[in-house]
């Protein structure tokens, strides 16, 4: 099947594949650029990009082999639905870790809130993977969510409320933030409306049985609706986070700034510095004479 013969949903998948491949390359470079301890948001985006690349690849294969409006539920489409839903987990974690990077406005209590937020996110991921798609929909193209999947998506909704509350609280302490923290908070605040729309779409898919339509179904629903409420929303959120990563200081710059702020007079009076001086003196007393003796002995051997 050529590109011009692809259905509307297939064209969206191809565009998504290209965009997330570019996002994946940028995220890998940012993870290496920022170094350990500062690259967690970009690692989450790498996982999200891998999920989306795999998802659209499976969807393209399933569209070619099993048209969603005519074929019953297949293993490929079940995988597409699961990957579509669990992609919110790394997106949530990337947002929480960015908020955690705001040291002064955040505070110790909020740090624990953002850290503990990862546990319900992992539980929701497990529930969605375990739930999959309703086995009763295997006889037709309904691809309904199971009760377990609904519980996982409901946890997403609760986590979204907590994340919005944490963003509001941290943003209210903006006067404590430095320029880097202001950039982080601005990016997170800008991404929240798109985030909410994405979560609402997932909620509509999970609980669409309440109104009996398939418009929000991630497999057999309205493609334009999914494009506007989920696909483009995630394009924007990930693009904002990667743009932020390009503006933040890399590992070398952070170390250089930290070295410029060191008070060497204060450092010289610390216990570790005195311990270092004692170790250096021991090395000078013991190792250097041994090296001189070895040099003299080797010289005698060469001359003999």
TrEMBL record:
Xref: InterPro entries: DUF7702
TM segment ranges: 6-32, 39-58, 78-100, 112-133, 153-176, 188-211, 231-249
Family matches, as PANTHER family: INTEGRAL MEMBRANE PROTEIN, UNPLACED GENOMIC SCAFFOLD UM_SCAF_CONTIG_1.265, WHOLE GENOME SHOTGUN SEQUENCE
Protein name: DUF7702 domain-containing protein
Pfam families noted in UniProt: DUF7702
Coiled coil: none
DUF7702 domain location: 10-249
Record keywords, A-Z: Membrane, Transmembrane, Transmembrane helix
Organism listed in the record: Lophiostoma macrostomum CBS 122681
Superkingdom of the organism of origin: Eukaryota
Lineage start: Eukaryota, Fungi, Dikarya, Ascomycota, Pezizomycotina
Keyword Cell inner membrane: no
Keyword field contains Membrane: yes
